[in-house]
Amino acid sequence: TPQALEIPFSDVAAYEQCGYRYRLARAYGFQQALAREMGYGRAIHHILRRIAEETAKRGKAPTKKRAGMIMEREFFLPFANRPAFEEMKNRASWVVDRYLDSYSGDLERVWAIERPFELQVEGGIVTGKADVILDLEEGKIGRLAIVDYKSAKAVRKRDQFDFQIQVYAAAGRGEGLEVAAGYLHDLADGHRDRVDVGERIAQAAVKRLGKSVKAIRKGEFPLCRRAETCRNCDYKVICRHGKSAAQ
After folding, report:
1. Going by C-beta distance under 8 Å and a sequence separation of 6 or more, which residues neighbour residue 100?
2. Quick one: which of 25, 30, 58, 137 has the fewest CB in 10 Å?
3. How far is 37 from 79, CA to CA, in rounded Å?
4. What is the mean pLDDT of residues 70-96?
């Protein structure tokens, strides 16, 4: 019996954007070009995690001054020069301040931070981490809400982001958790949207997930042939299909 494929959800999401790009990156090992912004989203996630941990330790959300101290000590971008680093740190400080203004109450009902999930589908096991899980949804103990942070205004990826939260909701229910809600939080503008994580749509997401994992396992890497995706692709210089699709 072939060994089950273990794959992170981020790989499945990349595959769904373009199977051929996934093949270049994962199967052939081509690296994307370094960008000064690389790691920005991860850096903000780290700061928010540290703020949540501090809240759990102290029993209340930190002040903006205290959050600023965490930012000064722990904000890190490995590929940015000094001017770019300062620019992005200032942007991240604004994001964190806005979060504390609007959602500091969330920090006092955090149930888990970067909670790992596993979901078994046909031919594979998909892994992932929910950024934050909140308790007391609608004021009821044990009713949980999954919140996923995104640091870019990527409206074109909204379907993928909803898909991710729905998959995590299904995985949580598979563990016996009561997942009552899901939210997509755009760190770029502070806007938060509710995501439908009802049983029917969550199971449809699991079915979609299984279909993609099965295709990856079979070695099927279809081209997306979407002009916008090709124009923004890190591999368009080496992709024999990218130039024609982008045109």
Report:
1. 51, 61, 62, 64, 67
2. 58
3. 7
4. 92
Rounded distance between C-alpha atoms, residue 142 and residue 199, angstroms: 17
d(CA 188, CA 50): 19
Q: How far apart are CA 113 and CA 40, in angstroms?
A: 19
Q: Is the pTM of this model over 0.85?
A: yes
The rounded distance, in Å, linking the Cα atoms of 222 and 30 is: 18
- The CA-atom distances, in angstroms, between 86 and each of 63, 80, 81, 213 are 22, 9, 9, 40
SS3 letters for the chain? CCCCEEEEHHHHHHHHHCHHHHHHHHHCCCCCCCCCCCCHHHHHHHHHHHHHHHHHHHCCCCCHHHHHHHHHHHCCCCCCCHHHHHHHHHHHHHHHHHHHHHHHHHHCCEEEEEEEEEEEECCEEEEEEEEEEECCHHHCCCEEEEEEEECCCCHHHHHHHHHHHHHHHHHHHHCCCEEEEEEEEECCCCCEEEECCCHHHHHHHHHHHHHHHHHHHCCCCCCCCCHHHHHCCCCCCCCCCHHHHHC
Mind listing the pLDDT tens digit for each residue in 18-31? 999 999 888 888 87
Paired tokens of 176: 């016996």
Q: What is the mean pLDDT of residues 7-27?
A: 91
Q: What are phi and psi of 137, to 5 degrees?
A: -65, 130
Tell me the two tokens of residue 233.
Answer: 């692709």
Determine how many CB atoms are found less than 10 A away from the CB of residue 40.
Answer: 22
